């Protein structure tokens, strides 16, 4: 990879974008080493929280993505043998997604990948500075959440 140019005096938004890109790239690399694609980590962890499975609609809502995005991801995860869809016992029109044994095994891998990226991101920071960073980032995120129109889309299906 080539040398990155540093942007002197970069605006906070630019710095956040560059940092988010670096974190995404590092996580993508960690996930790829485990046979997973970006975004599948959040899906696996969300499904793992639900003992009785989760509907696609509820999963989309929890992840703040559109249902077609979840459907696309479920198709890929199903083909990989990571999830299985089962009809609801109470309503045959609704299906729930469950992790297979392979999927359950990957949950620990996803957590390890995220932990590796977290360690890399916080390398050289004191514990107090890391806590402060998290607090500041949550505040910045809330600033945008408070300002976002209620009907703004969370993401796009590109």
From TrEMBL:
Query: What is one GO biological process annotated to this record?
Result: response to stress
Instruction: Indicate the segments forming the HTH marR-type domain, all copies.
Output: 9-142
Stretches of the chain forming a coiled coil according to its record:
none
Q: Which domain of life is it from?
A: Bacteria
Instruction: Extract the PROSITE patterns matched here.
Output: HTH_MARR_2
What GO molecular functions are on record for this protein? DNA-binding transcription factor activity
Q: What is this protein called?
A: MarR family transcriptional regulator
Protein's organism: Aureimonas flava
Give the source lineage, highest ranks first: Bacteria, Pseudomonadati, Pseudomonadota, Alphaproteobacteria, Hyphomicrobiales
């Amino acid at each position: 990879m080539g040398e990155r140019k540093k942007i002197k005096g970069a605006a906070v938004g630019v710095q956040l974008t560059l940092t988010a890109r670096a974190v995404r790239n590092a996580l993508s690399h960690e996930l790829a080493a485990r046979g997973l694609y970006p975004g599948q980590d959040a899906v696996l962890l969300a499904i793992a929280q639900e003992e009785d499975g989760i509907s696609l609609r509820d999963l989309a809502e929890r992840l703040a993505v559109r249902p077609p995005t979840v459907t696309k991801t479920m198709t890929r995860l199903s083909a990989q043998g990571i999830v299985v869809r089962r009809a609801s016992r109470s309503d045959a029109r609704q299906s729930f997604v469950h992790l297979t044994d392979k999927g359950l095994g990957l949950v620990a891998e996803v957590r390890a990948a995220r932990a590796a990226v977290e360690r890399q991101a916080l390398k050289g920071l004191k514990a107090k500075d890391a806590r402060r960073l998290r607090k500041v980032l949550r505040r910045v995120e809330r600033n945008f959440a408070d300002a976002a129109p209620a009907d703004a889309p969370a993401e796009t299906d590109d």
